[in-house]
Amino acid sequence: MEDTHMPVAKKECCRKYYEGKEKRHYVSCLALVDPVTNQRWFFDCTPDFTFQLHELDSIYPTDGNGISGIFLTHAHIGHYAGLMYLGEKL
């Protein structure tokens, strides 16, 4: 049984990544795109938000400020920690 209080870098599930044998995995989130209005929203704002926004930009680029909004599904830290990357202007 895995110790759930062990730091992520020490968990068995992460060992292959830290040994360079596996690609990085990102925390799950969803993006919703309205192709008519070109509005884009995220469901949850994970610690991987900057990478996920970059991926969204490469798949569905848009002019403007990037995203129309973020829906937070609940208050677990992994669902809102990426908000820190947005800076002071929300």
Write the layout of secondary structure elements.
Blueprint: H1 15-18, E1 30-34, E2 39-43, H2 49-59, E3 69-71, H3 77-80
Parallel strand pairs: 2-3
Antiparallel strand pairs: 1-2
Low-confidence stretches: none
Rg measurement, Å: 16 Å
Tell me the major beta sheet: 3 strands, mixed
- How do the strands line up in the largest sheet? 1-2-3
Number of helices: 3
Looking at the structure, what is the overall shape?
A: globular
Number of strands: 3
Separation of termini?
Answer: 42 Å
Descriptive labels:
90 residues; alpha+beta; 3-stranded mixed sheet; 21% helix; 14% strand
Write structural notes for this entry.
By secondary structure, the chain is an alpha+beta fold. The protein has three helices and three strands. The chain has helices at residues 15-18, 49-59, 77-80, and strands at 30-34, 39-43, 69-71. A three-stranded mixed β-sheet has the order 1-2-3, with no helix packed on it.
Briefly say what this structure is:
The chain is α+β, with helices and mostly antiparallel strands.
